[in-house]
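Issue: ligand-bound run for PPE - logging full I/O for the record.

Environment: standard queue, default settings, no custom constraints.

Inputs:
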Amino acid sequence: MAFDQSNRVWMNGKCVAWNDATAHVSVHALHYGTGVFEGIRCYETEDGPAVFRLRDHLNRMYVSAAVYGMNIPYSLEEMEEAISEVILRNGFRSCYVRPLCFYGSASLGLDPRRCPVEVAILAWPWAPLHGNESLTRGVRVTVSRWSKFHSRMMPTTAKACGQYLNSVLAVKDAVNDGYDEALLLDAQGFIAEGAGENLFLLRGGKLYTNDERHSILLGITRDSVIHIARDLGFEVEVGALSLGDLLRADEAFLTGTAAEVTPLREIDGTPVGEGRPGKVTMQIQRAFFDITAGREEKYRDWLHPVCESVEAVA
Ligand code: PPE
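Outputs:
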């Protein structure tokens, strides 16, 4: 985490100093988790910094907000511009971007509608979620005793603040027990997802992942990997994944904006495949990083150049 390298935050319409981007302890979101957010990465390319699948992330944020009846007081284009601005003003060539829309201060009680919607965008350099080494060595996961909440309890396809308490519980236990990450099962006992990532398996040369029927967030990295893998000639099947499937897999990996494409090498002491990052996993990871670095013409649409949209930045 490198907050100390971030000087500016975009908040409610302007770029302010990091220390001035504050909220009162009475804000609704602090009490009830009533906010929605995104996690987005900006990558360094030959043509300058570029944000990966920015539109898709912002679209998901507006959908998350709509689910909770929240009106974001800025248009998608304004948010795009604001994200470019905060990256440029911080002078970052690559970074993680965290837009957050939350109910502010007016009254408490569960109905948030009297509270203003506040919008902040943080940007800071963030290494891969489980550390640089995790991308080449893989991570060890444990199956959590906490289930992923069912999509009838809360919409798992929305990325909302309070929903993450479920992941926080799972990660706390996993880290206490010496694992890198927690894997959560759904209410039926099938695999849902990692605390902050989706899961892919490889068996017999074919890739498998699940979908929203198993209470997952539909990851944008997941969608990217499905495209990339099919492009590389792999068959990708979307359906239920059991723990048995994972234990029998030749390879497995996690996908997410923060985790990128992270090989999974062990689950509760049992090696996945040969217990080290698999060949196909690494092939997909390489392809993913070629795309994010702007080296793949075909996928240039996935990159939003940072300079393009900001008119005047001092
Ligand atoms: N599932 C969950 C529960 C999740 O939080 C993420 C992203 C994903 C899947 C993958 O989604 P996508 O980023 O669109 O591919 N988790 C974000 C927050 C992680 C955190 O620790 O904070 C992220 O990766 O930015």
